Amino acid sequence: MVMKAEKVAPWKQEVVGELIEKLERYPVVGILDIADLPAAQFQQMRQKLREQAEIIVSKNTLLKLSLDRAAERKDPKLQELIDHLQGPTALILARVGPFKLSKILRENKTSAPAKPGSKSPKDIVIPAGETGFAPGPVVGELQRVGIKARIQAGKIVILEDCPLLKEGDLISKEVADALAKFGIHPLELGLKLRAVYEAGMIFSGEVLEFDETKAIGQLQLACVSAVNLAINSDYPTSITIGLMITKAGAAARNLALNVCLPISEVMPTLLTRAYAEMIGLAASVHSKDEKALDEELRGMFTTAPAPEAKSEEKPKPVDKKD
User: Fold this and answer.
1) Which residues is 150 bridged to in the sheet?
2) What is the pTM for the complete model shown?
3) Closest by CA position to 240, among listed 226, 258, 227
């Protein structure tokens, strides 16, 4: 049920009026989940995004009222965002598209230490090898969470790789302490998009999160496959016509070579091939009867005798006269 204006406190009316004006001015409107995000980090992210988006924190009742009024004046589709006003929430207004906005938010996430009771966002493996820990009770603490450790040569050594957590596992206090010792911060803190409105469409946060590199690779593969299909099926397009003409030209030259058609495009190749065949035939004849070849051909297969080395004359002794 929409709240009537006369029942709304003056300061609330002012807040709602400002929100409606901004909702009408910005083409992209999103609902953010700000749960479990410390105030200090929230303010840092807010400052980073200042030039790309405006983030507004207000009571959900006021956000609901503002969206309801903006839906009447701008687009009824905005009302669907009201379903996402649950728990700690903020409004994000931007002039960039929903997918770019989602990418900006993902790139501005920060790492944080594990919290007992939270879920691991990924698999975590403690690798085998030496650690920087001094011998002491740390060995027992590591062993209690399943890490095989012992003291060797005055150092604490992990004997083998230990898969400490799998994605989705609940993090216990002992495991959180062990991760902190290794300097591992598995949690990612950031602003999460629940839903985004643009041009009469609502995008869920899950739809907006995708692997951009993978998507580009799939598009490139699809383009290459489409070009190959068009060429193999002889389907002329602005992209394939040049390749098809080149392919046809190569096929025509091969046909002319195979049937020995004397045209200018293949004559040099035909002459080269004929000369090579002639030399091969002459070599075969020469091996059986060299007199069957004329003098010029025989000269090509006859190795000229090496010139005899001239003997060096020793100098005659010179008679010395007194």
Assistant:
1) 157
2) 0.55
3) 227
- Phi/psi for 72 (5° steps) reads -70, -35
**What angle do helix axes 241-258 and 212-232 make, rounded to 10 degrees?**
40
Which residues lie closer than 8 Å to 73 by C-beta, 6 or more apart? Answer: 20, 24
HSE-up of 103 (CA within 13 Å, CB side)? 9
- With a pLDDT cut of 70, the percent of the chain lying above it is 91
Helix (H) or strand (E) holding 298: helix 295-301
> Environment class of residue 119 by beta-carbon count within 10 Å: exposed (0-12), middle (13-18) or buried (19+)?
middle
Between CA 239 and CA 226 the distance in angstroms is: 10
Calpha distance 186→122 (Å, rounded): 8
User: What is the average per-residue pLDDT within 241-255?
Assistant: 88
pLDDT computed for residue 318 by the predictor: 54
At what angle are helices 267-288 and 241-258 packed, to 10 degrees?
30
* Max CA separation in the chain (angstroms): 150
Burial zone of 275 (CB within 10 Å; 0-12 exposed, 13-18 middle, 19+ buried): exposed
Lookup: tokens for 94: 């931007």
**For residue 234, which phi and psi values (nearest 5 degrees)?**
55, 45
Residues 42, 97 contacting (CB under 8 angstroms): no
- Residue 152: what pLDDT? 83
Distance CA 16, CA 24 (A): 12
Domains contained in the chain, CATH given: 5-109+190-210 (3.30.70.1730), 124-186 (3.90.105.20), 217-301 (no CATH)
Q: Look up tokens 């944080």; give the residue.
A: 112
With a CB cutoff of 8 Å and minimum separation 6, the contacts of 109 are: 188, 189, 190
Cα 84-104-197 angle, rounded to 5 deg: 35
Of 100-109, 193-202, 240-249, 309-318, minimum mean pLDDT range: 309-318
Q: Identify the band that residue 220 occupies on the pLDDT scale cut at 50, 70 and 90.
A: very high
